[in-house]
Design brief:
This protein is an alpha+beta fold. The chain is built from 4 helices and 2 strands. A two-stranded antiparallel sheet has the order 1-2. α2 (about 20-30) packs across α3 (about 35-45). The termini are close together. About 10% of the residues are buried.
């Protein structure tokens, strides 16, 4: 069995009718943290080999996500 971790940020942002740029701005406005738009893009497109816990926590906080399963899932091949 092969398991792959998938970040579902694309689905979350579509549900909230929000762009990646708007998410970066929201994080800055709500937390004062500046993050690279490329970091959000890499998560959105599942191009990261490892996850930045702090970034995931910032995203979950500003989007008011209270369950990890709303942002991360496992794909079993």
């Amino acid at each position: 069995m092969n398991i792959k971790l998938i970040v579902t940020l694309d689905k979350v942002l579509k549900e909230k009718d929000m762009t990646q740029k708007e998410l970066v701005e929201l994080i800055k406005d709500k937390t004062g943290e500046s993050i690279r738009p490329a970091s959000v893009s890499e998560l959105y497109n599942n191009q990261r080999k490892s996850l930045n816990r702090e970034l995931i926590e910032l995203i979950a906080s500003v989007l008011e996500i209270d369950e990890a399963s709303k942002l991360i899932e496992f794909k079993i091949n």
